[in-house]
C-alpha cells in the first residue's frame, strides 16, 4: 500500500461484501455433548451480517464450542447451523437434510475466519507465507496477488517490517496480529475471535485489541467474539450474549448488559470479572 492510500478505504474492502442486515449465522436447536456433558443445550441464536456480537459467561459455559462448531472443528449432535443461508454440516438433497459432503463444508467454511487463543501460526513459514498460504492454495490467488494482499494487511496490523521473520522471532502480540492478518487474507464474511488476548503478556494486550477495534470500526466484517476483556466488548459490540450452562440466558446491547442486566446470574458474573 502506498503512503498516500487512505487506510479506511483499504479496510472497507477486507470482507467479502455482505448483504446488509441479512442473517449471516443461525444456530437452530443446536445440542452438543461430550459424553454425558451437555455443553450446548438446544441453542438458538443468530447474527446479522456486519454486526459484532460478543459471547460472555463463565468458563465452561460453551462459548468456545460455538466457535469450534462454526469452524467445523466439532459437529453438533442435534440441530442445524447455517452460514450465509447455507447449511454448514448438512446439505439439502431431494427435499431432505443429509450430512454434508466435504466439498460442501469447505465451500461454506470459506466464509469464516478464526483467530485462536494460541495464535496457531505455521512455525516453519515466514510471516509472508503464513498469510499467503491459504489464499493461494484454497482461493487460487496468484502468488503476486496474495503477496499484495498480505502486504496491505501487514500494514494494517503494523507489522510490515517483520514480513521476513519466522513466528518464533516475534512477540506473542506480534504473532497474534499476524494471525489476524492471516484470517483476514481469506476475506471471510465473519471473523471468529476466541479469547485472542488471554495467552498474551499484559503489556501486549492493548496493541492487539487496538487492531481489532480498528477493524471493527472501519470494516463491515461480521465479528463473533469470545472475550474476558469487558472494556473491549463494550467498545466494539452491537450485541452481548450471556451464556450459562450452554444456553443464552440474556442478551442485549452492551450499554444495557454491562450497566443494568436483568438476570442475577449476569450481575454475579460481571461483578466477578469487571
Ligand atoms: P467456554 O468457552 O465457555 O469456557 P467451552 O466451550 O470451552 O466453554 O467448553 C464447554 C464444556 O465442554 C467444558 O465443560 C469443557 O470441558 C467441555 N469440552 C470442550 N471441548 C471438549 C472436548 N473436546 N472433549 C470433552 N469435553 C470438552
Automatic annotation (TrEMBL):
A Pfam family matched in the record: ABC_tran
The reply to whether ATP-binding figures as a keyword in the UniProt entry is: yes
Keywords noted in UniProt: Amino-acid transport, ATP-binding, Cell membrane, Membrane, Nucleotide-binding, Transport
Membrane-protein topology = Peripheral membrane protein
ABC transporter domain: residues covered: 25-270
Cellular location(s)? Cell membrane
Tell me which InterPro entries the record gives. AAA+_ATPase, ABC_ATPase_HisP-typ, ABC_transporter-like_ATP-bd, ABC_transporter-like_CS, Ectoine_EhuA, MetN_ABC_transporter-like, P-loop_NTPase
Q: Which GO terms describe its molecular function?
A: ATP binding
Which NCBIfam families is this protein grouped with? ectoine_ehuA
Task: Report the sequence similarity comment from the record.
Answer: Belongs to the ABC transporter superfamily.
Q: What is this protein called?
A: Polar amino acid transport system ATP-binding protein
Native species:
Streptomyces achromogenes
User: The organism's lineage?
Assistant: Bacteria, Bacillati, Actinomycetota, Actinomycetes, Kitasatosporales
Amino acid at each position: 500500500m502506498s503512503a498516500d492510500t487512505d487506510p479506511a478505504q483499504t479496510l472497507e474492502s477486507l470482507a467479502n461484501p455482505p448483504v446488509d442486515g441479512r442473517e449471516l449465522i443461525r444456530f437452530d436447536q443446536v445440542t452438543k455433548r461430550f459424553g454425558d456433558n451437555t455443553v450446548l443445550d438446544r441453542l438458538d441464536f443468530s447474527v446479522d451480517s456486519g454486526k459484532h456480537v460478543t459471547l460472555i459467561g463463565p468458563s465452561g459455559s460453551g462459548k468456545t464450542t460455538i466457535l469450534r462448531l462454526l469452524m467445523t472443528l466439532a459437529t453438533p449432535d442435534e440441530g442445524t447451523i447455517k452460514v450465509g443461508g447455507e447449511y454448514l454440516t448438512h446439505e439439502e438433497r431431494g427435499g431432505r437434510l443429509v450430512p454434508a459432503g466435504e466439498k460442501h463444508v469447505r465451500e461454506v467454511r470459506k466464509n469464516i475466519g478464526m483467530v485462536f487463543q494460541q495464535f496457531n501460526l505455521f512455525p516453519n513459514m515466514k510471516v509472508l507465507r503464513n498469510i499467503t498460504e491459504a489464499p493461494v492454495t484454497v482461493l487460487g490467488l496468484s502468488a503476486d496477488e496474495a503477496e499484495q494482499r498480505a502486504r496491505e494487511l501487514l500494514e494494517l496490523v503494523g507489522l510490515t517490517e517483520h514480513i521476513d521473520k519466522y513466528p518464533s522471532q516475534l512477540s506473542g502480540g506480534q504473532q497474534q496480529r499476524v494471525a489476524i492478518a492471516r484470517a483476514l487474507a481469506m476475506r471471510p464474511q465473519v471473523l471468529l475471535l476466541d479469547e485472542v488476548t488471554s495467552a498474551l503478556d499484559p503489556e501486549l494486550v492493548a496493541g492487539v485489541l487496538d487492531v481489532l477495534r480498528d477493524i471493527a470500526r472501519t470494516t463491515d466484517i461480521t465479528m463473533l467474539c469470545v472475550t474476558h476483556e469487558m472494556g473491549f466488548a463494550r467498545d466494539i459490540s452491537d450485541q452481548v450474549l450471556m451464556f450459562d450452562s450452554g444456553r443464552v440466558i440474556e442478551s442485549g446491547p452492551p450499554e444495557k448488559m454491562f450497566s443494568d442486566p436483568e438476570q442475577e446470574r449476569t450481575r454475579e458474573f460481571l461483578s466477578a470479572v469487571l
